[in-house]
């Protein structure tokens, strides 16, 4: 590190771009970023939607519903709302089932971390299902027409 700084100090130049490049090369050799961490970072960036509207959780049966005595394995009911679009989702041990309201076709991704999520398609009535239940935190990304909507993240 001192040798790099001394070389630049002796040359009398303020070439910060060259210094930055030399530091990047040294870091890549001496302390490389693990391939798995790099892949996670790239995949996390894919989740970034600047133009997406956030669908706010307006109903969660774990919090808002009245418990029924003797009921076991009751599905979790969720409602997300953007003001113009509502997504109702039922979460069970067998997967997800939901509907986009007002009814319309949509491409839906189940986001469950930095991995690429399951791709679903809502039919003309807005209905969608998947046989793979989320195992941890998840969100839904919907593409309807030219609009992108992402739900809040929840723990399954």
Describe the protein's architecture and organization:
This protein has 156 residues and is α+β, with helices and mostly antiparallel strands. Helices cover 26% and strands 37% of the residues. The protein contains four helices and ten strands. The protein has helices spanning 2-11, 16-30, 35-46, 61-64; strands at 53-60, 76-81, 86-92, 95-101, 106-111, 118-122, 127-130, 137-144, 147-151, 154-155. Strand 5 (106-111) and strand 6 (118-122) form a beta hairpin. The chain is elongated, with a radius of gyration of 24 Å.
Task: Give a quick precis of the structure.
This protein has helices at about 1-10, 15-30, 35-45, 60-65; strands at about 55-60, 75-80, 85-90, 95-100, 105-110, 120, 125-130, 135-145, 145-150, 155.
Keywords:
37% strand, elongated, 156 residues, 10 strands, alpha+beta
SS-based class = alpha+beta
Uncertain residue segments: none
- Strand proportion, as a percent range, falls in 35-45%
Shape category: elongated
Q: Span between N and C termini?
A: 48 Å
Query: What radius of gyration results from the CA coordinates?
Result: 24 Å
Write the element-wise H/E pattern from the N-terminal end onward: HHHEHEEEEEEEEE
Indicate the percent of residues in helices: 25-40%
Please give the number of β-strands: 10
Mean pLDDT: 82
Counted by DSSP, the helix tally is 4
Oligomer: single chain
Major sheet, described briefly?
A: 10 strands, mixed
List the helices and strands and how they pair.
Layout: H1 2-11, H2 16-30, H3 35-46, E1 53-60, H4 61-64, E2 76-81, E3 86-92, E4 95-101, E5 106-111, E6 118-122, E7 127-130, E8 137-144, E9 147-151, E10 154-155
Parallel strand pairs: 1-9
Antiparallel strand pairs: 1-2, 2-3, 3-4, 4-7, 5-6, 5-8, 8-9, 8-10
């Amino acid at each position: 590190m001192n040798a790099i700084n001394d070389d630049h100090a002796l040359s009398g130049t303020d070439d910060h771009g060259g210094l930055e490049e030399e530091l990047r090369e040294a870091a890549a050799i001496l302390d490389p970023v693990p391939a798995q961490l790099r892949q996670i970072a790239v995949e996390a960036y894919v989740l970034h939607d600047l133009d997406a509207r956030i669908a706010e959780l307006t109903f969660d049966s774990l919090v808002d519903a009245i418990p029924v005595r003797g009921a076991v394995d009751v599905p979790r009911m969720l409602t997300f709302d953007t003001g113009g679009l509502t997504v109702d989702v039922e979460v069970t041990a067998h997967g997800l089932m939901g509907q986009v309201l007002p009814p319309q076709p949509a491409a839906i991704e189940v986001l469950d971390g930095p991995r690429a999520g399951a791709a679903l398609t809502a039919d003309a009535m807005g209905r969608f299902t998947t046989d793979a239940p989320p195992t941890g935190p998840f969100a839904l990304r919907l593409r309807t027409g030219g609009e992108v909507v992402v739900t809040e993240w929840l723990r399954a």
